[in-house]
Write a structure and sequence with these properties.
41% of the residues lie in helices and 14% in strands. It is α/β, with parallel strands linked by helices. The relative contact order is 0.14.
Length: 263
Amino acid sequence: MSNRFEGKVALVVGGANADESQLLGFAGLAGLEIARQGGKLVVGDIDDEAGNRSVNKMKDEGLTADYVHMDVTSDSDWVNAVEITVSNHGRLDILIMAAGIPDSGETIETTDVDKWRRVMDVTNLGMFLGTRAVVDPMRKSGGGSIVLISSMMAKVVRDGANAYATSRAGMTHFARSAAVQYGSDNIRVNTVLPGWTFTPFTANAFDEEWAERLAKRVPLGRVADASDIAGPILFLASDEAKYVTGSELLADGGVTGWIGPMD
């Protein structure tokens, strides 16, 4: 087992699905790999059942992991999660923020204001509160890595994803702003922009026929699985990316670089 994260403490938010007997989320898999590679892990999520199940599986494997209930739109939940992390493990080095919700699939004119606000709050308010909560303990630890999970929808759009695409684009610019502000503290802030991926988030949308249709639009010829996205997340979280900050790491199989099939 690699010890790439030996001595590191990570808070993974939106990473409850890390149980390999279930459909994996890429943030959950990234958290699992951090723990397997020598790190200590705290998982924050609103899905207490999945979160506790995942953490218990990790403990059965001999890994160091805790679970904390978290609503990313709650400032007090962020403060509590960070306090628990530092209290239990003495430091905080890595934040992976992967919470998000989909659009309603409506047009701009028919989108309900409360639904728009909810998407923005979970994604953009969540990343703001999270970054604000972790920078002080990271500063005390000598630096850290904040990885915000955006989407290729920050670069391209589709019908019915107005709020989602806008919120994901906001993440990339926020990361640049935070990277500039906290660079002198050795705190790196980057975004990962996943493409179409099989996860619990997309399970209801991706049947086999739909996945085959999407694969024709992907230069690499397939829809991603969780490991395809966890790899880039782990790179940015690790010291291998110690000179990388304010960046957008596209993990979309080439979709946004291609005009698409011509037949």
